[in-house]
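Example complex used in Figure S2.
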Amino acid sequence: MNTVQILFFFLSVLAIFSAVMVLFSKSPVHSVLWLIAVFFAISGHYILLNAQFLAIVNLIVYAGAIMVLFLFVIMLMNLNANAEPKKYWWMKFAGVISGGCFLVVLVSLVQQATELTGKQALVKEGNIGLIKNLGKVLFSDFVLPFEISSVLFLSAMVGAVVIGKKD
Amino acid sequence: MPIQYYIYFCLALFSIGIIGVLTRRNAIIVFMCIELMLNAVNLLLVAFSKLHHGTALAIDPATTVGTDGQLFVFFIMVVAAAEVSVGLAIIVMMYRNTHSVDINFLNRLKN
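Predicted assembly (278 residues):
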């Protein structure tokens, strides 16, 4: 076990534990905080893969902006932990069974795939994830999608204001 | 790092997201589980981009193969940010009308 593998397993266990705690937390505020922990672990994975731009964007956009928006909405609604309605145990049971079946089927599928054996993801090397290279491609080949995404943001902003406006 | 490890890890995160969507009834938590699934897919895209970059790097040291995958992840994040703003506005509107964020209240839409 070298350092990269130890970091990989540590970040994976942290992410999966935090993701499970997102489900099991009673209070929505605790769920948001655990989800922020998941995003930090995933950013650690990005850094491990030397995708530094995406690591920073993930932290700023997800952990910084989106989760703060969630916290604002939760605190605006003043949701209590006992506000969660009574739930049926068989509904939970069915959900866990179907999610587990999905996981088992896909894991067995990946285990049988002979194309994937011996393939290695390049860890801590390769410079395609740096801002210099990504920026060059983003502003030359992908400049039209980039501009279209600004229109998407404008329409999302107008939509959010129209929907959230008190009428 | 073998690519299978990344696939197993992302499948686990994605399945946790699916279980959350199926079992929880708080609309905000359901929404957060959708974000979790999006992030699992993002990480898998970056892992595959590094896989292809590694195989191309053995042939040509100056290659930029795999940049597209990481830009896809960037655009997914852009769309996710727009989606979250509209989705939370819908949840706020739903809370204002029903004074609850229970998604089972939404089945009154069918009448």
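The helical segments of chain B are 3-23, 27-57, 67-98. Chain B has three helices and no strands.
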